[in-house]
Amino acid sequence: MLRSFHRSRRPTHHVGTLLQRITMTNQKPSAELVEHRSKLRHSAAHVLAEVVLDMFPEAQLTIGPPTQDGFYYDFAVGTPFTPEDLKKIERQMRKSIGRNHPFIEREVSRAEAAEIVKDNRFKLEILEGIPEGETVTFCSHGDFEDLCRGGHVESTGQIKAVKLLTTSGAYWRGDEKNPMLQRIYGTAWESKEAQQEYIDRLAEADRRDHRKLGPQLGLFFFDPLSPASPFYLPKGTHIFNSLVNFVKDLYATYGYQEVMTPLIYNTELWKMSGHYEAYHEHMFTMEVDEREFGVKPMNCPPAMMVYKSDLRSYRDLPIRWADFSRLHRYELSGATHGLIRTRAFTQDDAHIFCTREQIGSEVKGFIDMLVKAYKIFGFDEVRFALSLRPEKRIGSDELWDEAEETLENLLSEFGIEYVRMSGEGAFYGPKIDVFVPDAIGREWQLGTVQLDFNQPDRFGLEYVAEDGSRQRPAMIHRAMLGSIERFMGVWIEHIAGAFPVWIAPVQAVVVPITDRHNDYCHDVGKILGRAGVRIEVDDSSDRMNAKIRKAQLQKVPYMLVVGDREQEAGEVSVRLRSGDDLGSMPIASVESRIAEEVANFK
RNA sequence: GCCUCGGUGGCGCAGUGGCUAGCGCAGCCGACUUGUAAUCGGCAGGUCGGGAGUUCGAAUCUCCCCCGAGGCUCCA
What are phi and psi of A387, to 5 degrees? Predict the structure, then answer.
C-alpha cells in the first residue's frame, strides 16, 4: 500500500509548487545571509501591507511571513486583486522603499493591542494566540503600523530588490472551513543581481518543464477526455518501457519475481483491506451486475491475495513480488500536475513477505539497489528521511518501537544521514522516504520503503515455521523509481529533456548534405540499425543546417553528417548535440562508440 | 473542492461591437543541391471551448457550463 507518492491530501496540502520547490543549492548562502534575507522579506511584506492598506482602505491585514525565496501577505478584501493592481502595488512599494523609513518596534500592553486591532478578527485571533508571558510588539515604518513579532531590517531602503509574482486565494490558517483570503506572493533580495539570478532560475525551470518538453519531444500528451492521464507516443513509450526494463533487469539480480494481477475488483476486497473506508473518495468505482466494483488504486491487496493462493513455508521466504500494474486514483482536479501527479500511473511496486529477522537485510538490499540505480540517472545526491508513527495509527506501541528501531539501525549501519520526521509515517508502519535534488536545486521525493505489520494481520497471512507452527509474515512495501510517470517527469526536468544515449528514443540522425548522398545515408542507417542503433535518416528536402537544427531541437545525441568527402571515404562526420564536432570517422567507430555508451548507461 | 487568470487553424500568438478573423512555426506541393542550429515561392488549414442571452450586427458585452494553468504548509 504505497501511499507516499500519490498520497491523499487535504486540499490545503498539495504537492510543492514551482516556487516552493526551487531552493538554492548551487551556492549555499551563509547563515547570516539566510537570516538577512528572511528579515528583508518580512520587511518587504510590511511594505506590501502598507501599500495595500493605502490603496484599499477596507482591506484587513492578517499574516505576512517570509518564505523560502520570498514572502507573501494574506489580506481579507472584498474583491480579489487583479494583475493590474499588482503592478500598481509594486510601483507604490518601490516609492515607499525609496523613502527609506526606519522600522521601529514598540512594546504594547495586551489591552492596548486589543484596542488597536479591535476591528480585525484575524489580528484579534492572533493576539489571543500569543502566550501570556510573551510581550506584544508592534512594528512601524512611516505611518504604517502592524502587530508583529519583529525581525526586520533597519529601514525600508535596505530592500534593494522586490518583485510581486502572483496572487491567489488562500484559506485563513490554511483550513478550507475558514474564510478565503487573497494572498499576494512576492520576492525580495539583497541586491538586484541576486533577484535577477532568481528570476533566471524560474525561467530555467520553465524551460525544463516536462509538460512542455513532453509534447515537443513527441513523448506524450494529455486530453480532457481522460483528464490527468498521459497518452504515450511511440518515443515516450520507448522511454517508459526502457525504465521498466531497467528495473526488471535489476530485479533479476536482486531476486525478485513478477506477478500480474487484475485491475478491477469487487468492493468486498476493498472492504477487507480497509481502502473502502479510508480511500473510497480516491477510487474509481462502477456498478456491474448490480454489484459494486473498484479500479485498484494500489497493488497491495492483490499481493495479499496472491500470497494466500497457496500455503507458504518459511523456506519460501523472503518472497519478493513485483507488480507493474497500471493504477487509477481520483485526484482533485486542482492537484494534478503533468506526469508528476496523475490519475493513471504505474509504480515499480513490489511487496516483500518475510520473517521479522529478514526485514533488515531486505531493506538494506533495497536501499543498495536504489542508490546504485539513482546514480545511473544522474541523481548522485540522495537524502533520506525516516517517517515515524503518526497520531492516527494501528498496531501496538511495541510493534512500532520494533519497526522504527529496525529502520533506524539500518540507516546507521549504512552510514546514512537522515532526518526524522515525526508523525509522517504511514498508518500501518514507519517508512524511509528518499529525496533527490535535481539539476536546478529542486528536491523531489521518489522512492520509499515501508514496513507493514498490519495488512498481513487483516488478511490473516501465515507461513509454516521450522517448528511446524503458523507464523505471521511481515510485509515491506517498496518502490524505487516511485511511479514511472512521476519519475519520468522529474528526470526529464533534471536532464532538460536530453536523454542519455542508452535510453534516447533516437540515438542518431543521419544528415545528407545534398540528395545525391541519400542512398549512401540510407546504407549507413541500415548498417547501424542492424547493429542495434536507434537511427533515422533525414532525407527531407531541407538544407543541412535545418536538418541539424531539427535534430538539435529533438535533443538527438548523435548527428552523422555525410557529404562527398564522407561518402568517398565510407565514413560519417560526427556532431554531438553539445555542438562538438568529432570529425570524420568510420561507421564501425560510431557503432562501437555508441555500443560502449549504451553498455555503461551513458 | 475553493480563489485568480486563461481557452482564437496541429503548436505559439495578434485581434475589446462593423468589410471574406490575421501572423509565425509545423503540414502539403514545387524550385534550389547547399559543409555543422531555420533556402525561396506557392497551397491548404479556423463551428474563435460549449450553450443561452443582449444587439440591425458578437471572437469581442452578459449569464451558465466544460476544460486548462497558477495558487490554497511555512502562522504577530
Answer: -95, 120
Q: Is A37 exposed, middle or buried (0-12, 13-18, 19+ CB in 10 A)?
A: buried
Strand B-proximal residues of A, range 101-140, CB below 7 A, are: 126-127, 129-130, 134-137
DSSP A539-581: -SSS-HHHHHHHHHHTT-SEEEEE-HHHHHHTEEEEEETTS-E
C-alpha cell at A145: 503600523
What domains can you pick out in chain A, each with its CATH number?
Answer: 18-207 (3.30.980.10), 211-261+296-494 (3.30.930.10), 508-599 (3.40.50.800)
A149-CA/B76-C1' distance, Å? 5
A194 beta carbon to strand B: under 7 Å = no
User: Is strand B within 7 Å of residue A578 (CB)?
Assistant: no
| Cβ A566 to strand B below 7 Å | yes
Is A354 one of the catalytic residues? no
- Nucleotide with the nearest C1' to A566 CA: B35
ipTM for the complex?
A: 0.86
Cα-flanking dihedrals φ and ψ of residue A434, to 5°? -110, 130
Is nucleic acid strand B under 7 Å from A218's C-beta?
no
User: CA of A104 and C1' of B51: distance in angstroms?
Assistant: 58
Q: State the residue for C-alpha cell 560526427.
A: A574
Query: How many angstroms separate the first and last alpha carbons of chain A?
Result: 34
Nucleotide nearest to A549 (CA to C1'): B37
Cell of A146: 502592524
| A549 Cβ contacts chain B strand, under 7 Å | yes
Q: Mean pLDDT by 10-residue block, N- to C-terminus, for chain A (602 residues)?
A: 32 30 48 87 93 89 87 86 80 91 90 88 87 86 88 90 85 82 89 85 82 87 82 92 96 96 93 81 85 91 95 96 92 81 91 93 93 93 87 78 88 87 80 84 85 89 96 94 91 92 96 94 96 95 93 95 96 96 97 97 95
Q: Cα–Cα distances in Å, from A70 out to A33, A172, A194? A: 14, 19, 12
Which residues share a beta bridge with A384? Answer: A418, A434
Q: Catalytic residue at A6?
A: no
Query: For A224 and B47, how far is CA from C1' in angstroms?
Result: 19
3 state SS for A415-478: CCCEEEECCCCECCECEEEEEEECCCCEEEEEEEEEEECCHHHHHCCCEECCCCCEECCEEEEE
Q: Is the CB of A80 under 7 A from strand B?
A: yes
